[in-house]
Inverse folding.
């Protein structure tokens, strides 16, 4: 399991799944230290530990199931909502090296989305492990990397396909964060996408 997949697995198995079973939502949020649930149970994933009701449970040497047991959670993805996902299983080891890249990408994405559309609340979605918003039938966000692009990237995804130089991937437009830079540059990419989509 790759590092990004382990972070994706944490989001899916230990945050979104337990939250969905208790509170009926899979939405997650980016925090200054990582990411967290938006409803009960109160669970946060930080660089080196899971934080549950203020209690820190280090990842080192743990499987998802062991972390869940220590936290009093029922490990498992939300059931019946989507087909894709992390592919993580409860007995997989949690490998969280690369925290700076993954959590940094989410932080840049969240900040860029808030700058671009201050009236919207960015959501970290556990299915694809990306933080995004929808505005005027266009999705804007940042992915930590996936089978299409192996590194963190910003995207603009119109619900209906568009044509033109801006659109460079099957789902719209994508640019690696390594090429864009900071949240200001990512917000500018979103603004360029909004103009290109209209």
């Amino acid at each position: 399991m790759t590092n990004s997949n382990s972070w994706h697995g944490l989001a899916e198995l230990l945050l979104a799944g337990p939250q969905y079973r208790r509170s009926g939502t899979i939405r997650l949020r980016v925090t200054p230290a990582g990411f967290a649930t938006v409803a009960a149970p109160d669970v946060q994933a930080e660089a080196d530990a899971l934080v549950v009701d203020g209690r820190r449970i280090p990842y080192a040497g743990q499987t998802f199931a062991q972390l869940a047991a220590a936290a009093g959670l029922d490990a498992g993805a939300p059931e019946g909502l989507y087909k894709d996902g992390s592919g993580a299983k409860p007995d997989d080891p949690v490998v969280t090296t690369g925290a700076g890249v993954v959590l940094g990408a989410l932080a840049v994405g969240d900040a860029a989305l808030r700058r671009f559309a201050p009236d919207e609340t960015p959501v970290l979605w556990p299915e694809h492990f990306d933080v995004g918003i929808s505005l005027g039938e266009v999705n804007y966000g940042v992915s930590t990397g996936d089978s299409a692009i192996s590194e963190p990237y910003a995207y603009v995804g119109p619900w209906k396909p568009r044509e033109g130089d801006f659109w460079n991937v099957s789902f719209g437009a994508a640019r690696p964060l390594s090429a864009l830079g900071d949240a200001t540059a990512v917000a500018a990419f979103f603004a360029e996408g909004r103009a290109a989509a209209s």
In short: Strands lie at 28-31, 34-37, 43-46, 49-52, 55-58, 123-125, 130-134, 138-143, 153-158, 173-176. The first strand starts at residue 28 and ends at 31. The CA atoms of residues 34 and 131 lie 12 Å apart. The chain has a mean pLDDT of 94.
